[in-house]
């Protein structure tokens, strides 16, 4: 049974993580809209496609990656498609599904937006911690995430 102090420390860490995440996401959304006319969710779609093998994902996989419902993702991808940043095509491996991929215009918008993204993250997090602290934080969060993946697959 965890001690009261450990529970309190855990909840404080969780609260701080949520507060920091909210602050970073809010500032990212503001700066990405201001400088590139895309939302943080649109950036998330573009970056996930860029990181995917062949710069394409099945819509169901993309929805999971960006944590949106299939309907929410369909509307978001529709807006990105209307702006020429992505395209949807039937999945040749499964005629019931669609693949979403980056267009050259989407790749260009992402490259520009990535500079803003990185500046915001470094400004809000990296500039306030030492390199050692950042390495420790990355390691600690990585352990928690890895444990979660192990539990989910087990």
The count of helical stretches stands at 6
- Mean pLDDT across all amino acids: 93
> How would you write the strand order of the largest sheet?
1-3-2
For the largest beta-sheet, the strand count, sense and barrel status come to: 3 strands, antiparallel
Distance from first to last alpha carbon: 23 Å
**Percent in strands:** 5-15%
- How does CATH name the architecture? Orthogonal Bundle
User: What is the number of strand segments?
Assistant: 3
Please provide a brief summary of the model.
This protein is mainly alpha-helical and 154 residues long. 71% of the residues lie in helices and 12% in strands.
List its salient traits.
mainly alpha; 71% helix; Arc Repressor Mutant, subunit A; 6 helices
């Amino acid at each position: 049974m965890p001690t009261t102090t450990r529970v309190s420390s855990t909840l404080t860490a969780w609260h701080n993580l949520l507060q920091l995440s909210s602050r970073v996401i809010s500032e990212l959304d503001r700066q990405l809209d201001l400088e590139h006319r895309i939302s943080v969710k649109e950036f998330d779609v573009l970056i996930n496609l860029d990181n995917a093998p062949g710069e394409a994902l099945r819509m169901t996989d993309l929805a999971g990656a960006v944590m949106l419902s299939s309907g929410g993702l369909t509307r978001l991808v529709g807006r990105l498609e209307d702006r020429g940043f992505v395209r949807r095509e039937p999945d040749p491996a499964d005629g019931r599904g669609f693949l979403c991929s980056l267009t050259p215009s989407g790749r260009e918008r992402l490259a520009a937006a990535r500079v803003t993204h990185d500046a915001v993250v470094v400004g809000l997090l990296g500039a306030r911690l030492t390199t050692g602290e950042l390495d420790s934080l990355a390691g600690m969060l990585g352990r928690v995430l890895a444990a979660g993946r192990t539990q989910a697959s087990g």
